[in-house]
């Protein structure tokens, strides 16, 4: 059984179609990256699969069951979403933010428990934020702030984690730090991770499965070594490039053509 599936998914904003009859399967226990040109609908697809957007036609299956038929809290216990550029209320501490990840488990009959405390402590330790727990989120650096949001998602305790451009606004060091953290989660805990990424080379390095979006459909998908070619880059991004082997990781490395000092 797949972790997530989109079946004949049609999504639109009014009369503007974003996807038509799109089919996609997300395997369990793997890292999947969605890539494509700006405006191709990567974030829309992620939001639809997280049930934040209602498809015009088709269905999303969460572990084999229609996500539309599941209670909201049941979905939140099985799948977490970190949106692009999240913001926290002013004055909120890291600890308070991470505790919000336990919201799906709270009710009149089930208040804060030792299990909730354990998940929050584990999330803080995993992201290296224990000593910053009482710091205000808006006082953190960009990299620390992103780790705090990832910690909140981890505290939710779901097997499936969706992230919309988790490296946006981060410098190179903090991009690698955030992606290393997510990769460690996959290695240690076997989480299913789905990310929207702009950087093709980082997507190749960290993901097991790439999904390239073009013309309202999945243009091509598969392991990075099969997906990322000069032909695919030109078709999907309208850009000429050379694709070589990364000397450190052995994954595809896209070298785009453009102006600059070329070797003669």
Automatic annotation (TrEMBL):
SUPFAM superfamilies: P-loop containing nucleoside triphosphate hydrolases. PANTHER family: IRON(3+)-HYDROXAMATE IMPORT ATP-BINDING PROTEIN FHUC (PTHR42771). Its main location: membrane. It comes from the Bacteria. The keyword Iron applies. Coiled coil: none annotated. This is ABC transporter ATP-binding protein.
């Amino acid at each position: 059984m797949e972790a997530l599936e989109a079946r004949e998914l049609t999504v639109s904003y009014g009369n503007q179609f974003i996807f038509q009859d799109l089919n996609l399967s997300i395997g369990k226990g793997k890292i999947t990256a969605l890539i494509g040109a700006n405006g191709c609908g990567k974030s829309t697809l992620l939001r639809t699969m997280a049930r934040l957007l209602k498809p015009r036609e088709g269905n999303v299956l969460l572990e084999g069951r229609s996500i539309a038929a599941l209670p909201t809290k049941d979905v939140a216990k099985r799948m977490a979403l970190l949106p692009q550029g999240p913001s926290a209320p002013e004055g909120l501490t890291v600890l308070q933010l991470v505790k919000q990840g336990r919201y799906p488990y709270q009710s009149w009959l089930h208040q804060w428990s030792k299990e909730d405390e354990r998940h929050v402590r584990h999330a803080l330790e995993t992201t290296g934020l224990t000593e910053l727990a009482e710091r205000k989120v808006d006082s953190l650096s960009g990299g620390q702030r992103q780790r705090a949001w990832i910690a909140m998602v981890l505290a939710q305790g779901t097997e499936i984690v969706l992230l919309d451009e988790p490296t946006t606004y981060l410098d190179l060091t903090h991009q690698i730090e955030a992606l290393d953290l997510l990769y460690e989660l996959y290695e240690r805990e076997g989480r299913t991770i789905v990310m929207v990424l702009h950087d093709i080379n980082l997507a190749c390095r960290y993901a097991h499965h790439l999904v390239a979006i073009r013309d309202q459909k999945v243009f091509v998908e598969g392991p990075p070594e099969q997906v990322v070619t000069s032909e695919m880059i030109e078709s999907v991004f309208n850009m000429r490039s050379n694709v070589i082997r990364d000397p450190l990781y052995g994954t595809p490395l896209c070298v785009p053509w453009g102006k600059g000092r070329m070797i003669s």
